[in-house]
Design goal:
The complex is a heterodimer of chains A (about 120) and B (about 110). Chain A contains no helices and 10 strands. By secondary structure, chain A is mainly beta. The radius of gyration of chain A is 13 Å and the shape is globular. The model of chain A has no long low-confidence stretch (mean pLDDT about 95). Chain B is an all-beta fold and about 110 residues long. Chain B is built from no helices and 9 strands. In chain B, strands 1, 3, 4, 7, 8 and 9 form a 6-stranded mixed β-sheet that branches. In chain B, strands 2-6-5 form a 3-stranded antiparallel β-sheet, with no helix packed on it. Chain B is globular, with a radius of gyration of 13 Å. The chains are: A mainly beta (about 120), B mainly beta (about 110). The interface between A and B is medium-sized, with 20 and 26 residues.
């Protein structure tokens, strides 16, 4: 069965970086893009960007351009989302989701940014 | 890219039907037939209900249906059940390999 398993919760100070992982199983890893979506407390879902595990192409929402990097390691079927220059407004649950339809989601990773 | 506009909340009694609107622009909802809908129970991962405006993944009850007219997409839930109480989000492809979500709608089962 398709599964996306994310890394655990993180606590970071303002200005730091965070790297969240998403390990895929149950399907051919390189056949589907992975999207990253976040939800800040009390807010809605926000699309951050995508990565194509086959060719390493990626695309980011304009809001996160220059601050986010999405990478992958095909040998362990894992994608990563790194967000830099963290601020309090980045406190959120971050999700990975498969494909353009986002048909499978990871369990979410809480990133807390606090001094 | 601005979020798609959804009503903040809708409600209905068990067995009734509710419809959630999702208004975008001629550059996203109105241009592409790539609108999806997600059900999100707090503390859980979102679940895909509808994709490509009208298609339902296997396992999603036919009580959930999607449609689109112009720049507005809609999700209808018929035969409302207690377990349908959740937040619902639309999403659309917005061109240039980007996507946008809606503002979200809380569905309350009275």
């Amino acid at each position: 069965q398709v599964q996306l398993v994310q890394s655990g919760a993180e606590v970071k100070k303002p200005g730091a970086s965070v790297k969240v992982s998403c390990r895929a199983s149950g399907y051919t890893f390189t056949s589907y893009d992975i999207n990253w979506v976040r939800q800040a407390t009390g807010q809605g879902l926000e699309w951050m960007g995508w990565i194509n595990p086959h060719n390493d192409n990626s695309g980011y929402a304009q809001k996160f351009q220059g601050r986010v990097t999405m990478t992958r390691n095909t040998s362990i079927s894992t994608v990563y989302m790194e967000l830099n220059s963290l601020r309090s407004e980045d406190t959120a649950v971050y999700y990975c989701a498969r494909g353009p339809n986002k048909d499978y989601w990871g369990q979410g990773t809480l990133v807390t940014v606090s001094s | 890219q601005s979020a798609l506009t959804q009503p903040r909340s809708v409600s209905g009694s068990p067995g009734q039907s509710v419809t959630i609107s999702c208004t975008g622009t001629s550059s996203d909802v109105g241009y592409y037939n790539y609108v999806s809908w997600y059900q999100h129970h707090p503390g859980k991962a979102p679940k895909l209900l509808i994709y490509d405006v009208i298609k339902r993944p296997s396992g999603v009850p036919d009580r959930f249906s999607g449609s689109k007219s112009g720049n507005t997409a809609s999700l209808s839930i018929s035969g409302l059940r207690a377990e349908d109480e959740a937040d619902y989000y639309c999403s659309s492809y917005a061109g240039s390999y980007t996507y946008v979500f809606g503002t979200g709608t809380k569905v309350t089962v009275l």
